[in-house]
MetQ/NlpA family ABC transporter substrate-binding protein (Fructobacillus apis), 279 residues
Amino acid sequence: MTKTAKIIAAAIVLLGVGYLSFGGHEKASSNETVTVGIMAGDKKTDEQWDLIKKNAKKEGLDIKLKTFTDYTQPNAALTSGDIDANAFQHYIFLNDWNKTHKSDIVPVGDTTLSSGRLYSDKHKSLDEIPNGGTVAISNTKITQGRTLLTLQAAGLIKVDDKVKDPTLKDVVDNPKNLQFKELGTDQLVRVLPEVDLASPDSSFIVGAGRSIKDAIWVRPLDKSQHDGVNIIATTKKKAKSSAIKKLVKAYQSDNVKDFIDNKANTGAIAVWDDPAFKK
């Protein structure tokens, strides 16, 4: 074989290897992939997303999760293109975010609704909360608003009825002169022995080894709380993509509903097929 022939033969072999490698790569990546932003949770959250991932894989979709610790991060990551969708917020928070940041994030599927719960290590009922008592409250808007509405529903305060997502400045009546201590959301469970009342997210209660049954008061769920329903959200541009449709289908499945309602023990309920929470 001449030197030229040897060079040609070697080139053909290299091309063949490259083709096979490319073909193998294509086969391994045949599924669509979607990156979803969520808030840091607990083992139950991980178990729930494991179910969703398995459902998605059956539909030809791989789900990658990106975890955040600050409620301002998932929407910023979505608009910047770092993630494709997120699942952490309710309608009120999204509407406020879009208005403030002039963004085009849209809801594509309802997920869960959680009862507001009030906890105390010092008292067994709301009647025992003293005048001037200290209430630990989140310093992040999404959680602070939910807590204030829970406190209002419990009859402890009144907020401006024109505001859907109130902050402390919107409290218009405080008959017990409750003193509010603003803290990071992840600190609310830790300070329970030191304050009279707090309303930590259920995921933090469970993550701390406590039970949601320890709450001294639970807000009843009803249709009026629809704006507090949590959602899957994405950008307007991606809302009708096949990957997002598969994500929503994977989440809104019977096995995920069963897990949320009967096994997660976080106090949340699946609401996507519940007519009681449809507008």
Remarks:
- The domain at 31-114+225-277 is CATH 3.40.190.10 (D-Maltodextrin-Binding Protein; domain 2).
- The helical segments are 3-28, 43-58, 73-80, 91-101, 141-153, 202-207, 242-251, 254-262.
- Residues 10-27 have pLDDT under 50 and may be disordered.
- The radius of gyration is 24 Å.
